[in-house]
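User:
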Amino acid sequence: MTNKLAQEKAYMLAVEFIDAINTNNKEKLKEKFSVSQAVLDEIYEEIEGFFGSIPFISLPSIETAFLSRNPRTFFDFYKMDDNLCWGAECTLFVDGKVAEPILHLEFIERDNELFLKYKYLGS
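Assistant: Predicted structure:
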């Protein structure tokens, strides 16, 4: 898979993942993204720790996600040591504004498809 195609697929998966968090879609988080209830509780605790509540979070639009900015893009997508693994550091937005936490994800490529794996939320 080319880097450009992989980055677009990864972005769309990340949007779907964040949507599932925002809507508390436990079934989708478990089935599609292998997020257990314990990990989901941790995600919500992290979000609440940053904001004092659970706001609606989002990624920037796809038109701006990959634009170069200092020191990195809003959706920093990179190949990892293993040629079938990609990493992403995703700047989160709340109310259309850049928020402090960065969503760290891993993408595994299998049979020309990407699978999202949640890593952690940090600053």
